Amino acid sequence: MDYGAKDMAESFRTVRKNTIQVAQDIPEDKYDFRAAEGGMTVAEMLAHLATSTHWAQQLHFIEKKSDVSYEDFGRYMAEGKARAESLKTKADIIAALESGGHDFACRLEQATHAQLAEDVAFPAPIQPPTKSRFEMLLSVKEHEMHHRGQLMLIERMLGIVPHLTRARQNR
């Protein structure tokens, strides 16, 4: 079995489609809900996800870096945070989830096996000192699934049955 860029892109599209459905299912008047002090609100978490592909696109597809510095990562995070903070409404957030997900998946599916196998180096003392682009790009999907799990629990707290549960119940 050969899991490559097209497979990863399709898998990411599925994850993002499910995140968008969660964003649509939560009423906008609940977007300020915060499950616990210190945690993100629904809007903050969704805006974070909408912009979370930025760093990976910059590093792997635009700048095509083979090593990343603390300065690079700080810049990517600051740019993503500024974009997330600009998303004020449910409609803005959903539009950013759609466009950002589409852009990332399109870039991802164009990656070659050789590009995915390339190592990216990290500054000391980060361990391991390198990771493959494949592993780093896969982590984007894993990160989104982590937060979507949180959002689905928040849905339950708000009295909403998550769409994946509804679909399973209907089957």
Protein architecture, described:
The protein is mostly helical. It has a single domain (5-170), classed as Four Helix Bundle (Hemerythrin (Met), subunit A). 67% of the residues lie in helices and 4% in strands. The chain has 8 helices and 2 strands; from the N terminus they run ααααααββαα. It has helices at residues 5-25, 42-51, 54-62, 70-85, 90-109, 113-117, 133-157, 163-170, and strands at residues 119-121, 130-132. A two-stranded antiparallel sheet has the order 1-2. The chain is globular.
Strand-helix topology:
Layout: H1 5-25, H2 42-51, H3 54-62, H4 70-85, H5 90-109, H6 113-117, E1 119-121, E2 130-132, H7 133-157, H8 163-170
Antiparallel strand pairs: 1-2
Find the count of extended strands (DSSP E, 2+ residues).
2
Strand content: under 5%
Whole-number mean pLDDT: 96
Low-confidence segments: none
Q: How many H/I helices?
A: 8
Task: Give the structure's gist in a few sentences.
The chain is mainly alpha-helical and 171 residues long. The chain has helices at residues 5-25, 42-51, 54-62, 70-85, 90-109, 113-117, 133-157, 163-170, and strands at residues 119-121, 130-132. The longest helix is centred in the last third of the chain and has 25 residues, at 133-157.
Main features:
two-stranded antiparallel sheet, 8 helices, Four Helix Bundle (Hemerythrin (Met), subunit A), 4% strand, mainly alpha, 171 residues, globular, single chain
